[in-house]
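Readers of this paper often ask what the protein records in our data store actually look like. Such a record has a labelled line for the sequence and another for the backbone structure tokens. Nothing more is needed to write down the fold, since each code stands for a local backbone conformation. The remainder of this section carries one protein's record, kept here as part of the documentation.
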Amino acid sequence: MKKVWLWLLLGVLFVSFLLAGCGPQVEYEIGIMQLADHPALNAARDGFIEALQEEGFVDGENISLNIQNAHGEIATASTIAEGFVADQVDLILAIATGAAEAAYNATKEIPIVITAVTDPVNTGLAESLEHPGTNVTGTHDMNPIVEQLELLKEIIPEAATLGVIYNSGEENSQVQVEILEKKAPQFGLTVIKAPVTATGEVSTAAESLVGKVDAIYVPTDNTVVSAFASVVQVSEEHLIPVIPGEENCVKQGGLATIGIDYFKLGYQTGKMAVKILRGAAEPATMPIEGQSEYNVIVNKTTAKKLKITLPQDLLERAEVIE
């Protein structure tokens, strides 16, 4: 009888061993941190994950994704980054400037790929776009501001004053506003700034521009974009067109833009991450990339609400939101 029980025990152990061997074998731990929860950053995250999947890196099979959101709090982003370091993840995806800075402050060893970061050089994340020289690479989302100003003048040739709502504490926004102020005079535009420090101030900032501006510009600013609905409300009430820095805001009620597709940008970043995971590239020598093609997008419904007639040739070349 003892021999029977012994053989049964050995059989159970053998089967358990086989089942364990058949289970998913996680090869890489990836920490994903985004600074805030809004459509552009969510799209960048989803694009990144899709690129991984296309390359055979599937969550729960051969990789493990730890997805965290700082909800706009820099202190929370720092805590998340420190947690990733403590967990010894193999790679970090940092979405938006604040998240990227938190990750870089937490580690100079773990590879970091970034996306939705406007100026990684100016913020000290990289020595240059061509040769980062650090553990950081990925994609930037510097806006085609000149082209966006051209689009504004194409739609509203008589526009002379342009309001800009931005978080004065966001470095990526400061960079964009500086470019805007420098380039706007070339188009006969005077810039009036309406800075904010929190989402709760966005509506008041938009109201402060009423009667002073012919249009409003919103850069790729995480604070303002998170409260973009309040800008649209002011826009519709006072018939002030809004040119946002990215296309998701046009879908939410902005008039038009030449902007970045954040899903594609995240996807591009995911392809770069795959090269790092496979040992085919290192962040220090992997150029930080921008989006090679921009989308022209207009919201026909918004134009109707604002009593604006969109040029026919613009409608023919743009993606039109009905």
Summary: The chain has 13 helices and twelve strands. The radius of gyration is 24 Å.
